[in-house]
Amino acid sequence: MKRLVQLLFISILAAVLSGCSFLGEVNNSLDYINEATAHIETLNSFAEEAPELLQEAVTDSAVQTELEEQLLHVKTEIEEFIQLTDIPSLAEELHADFVQKNEALLAEINTLLDNGNLVISNIENSELFTTIQEANELFTRIEDLGL
């Protein structure tokens, strides 16, 4: 009888612990989706505002300063996103692709900035917005996983 109670207790404990693992993965997935969503919203917001700012920055130093600040903010956001480590197993491959696009965005931003200052002459050759669109498409694939 004592042995039966012990086996029952161990079984219940195992079930609870495996349930905690499942809940942990669900929470991890939700956290990742929230962080990825916030990141994409930052990129999309920048992509919507930046074309006009880029045009105005050529002739207006105040707009140029605002654009520099936004680029630095986006750069920081990208660097933080690249450093994420708690990636749900279902999204690992897509996250790797997403990080690759973010690294490309970072490179584009770095070509636009020189020591934190916007280099207007580099704007014309930038593929910044194309890269943002590609990152957005990858995020859509992550959302489609249903995490």
Structural category is mainly alpha
Radius of gyration, whole Å? 22 Å
Poorly predicted ranges:
4-23
Secondary structure tally, helices: 4
Helix content range: over 70%
Please indicate the percent range of residues in DSSP E strands (runs of 2 or more): under 5%
State the order of secondary-structure elements, H for helix, E for strand.
HHHEEH
Apparent shape: elongated
Structure described in brief:
The chain is mainly alpha-helical and 147 residues long. Helices cover 79% and strands 3% of the residues.
Structural write-up:
This protein has 147 residues and is mostly helical. It has 4 helices and 2 strands; from the N terminus they run αααββα. It has helices at 2-57, 61-82, 92-112, 128-144; strands at 113-114, 117-118. Strands 1-2 form a two-stranded antiparallel ribbon. The two termini are 44 Å apart.
Protein traits:
147 residues, mainly alpha, two-stranded antiparallel ribbon, 4 helices, elongated
Secondary structure elements and pairings:
Elements: H1 2-57, H2 61-82, H3 92-112, E1 113-114, E2 117-118, H4 128-144
Antiparallel strand pairs: 1-2
Helix pairs in contact: 1-2, 1-4, 2-3, 3-4
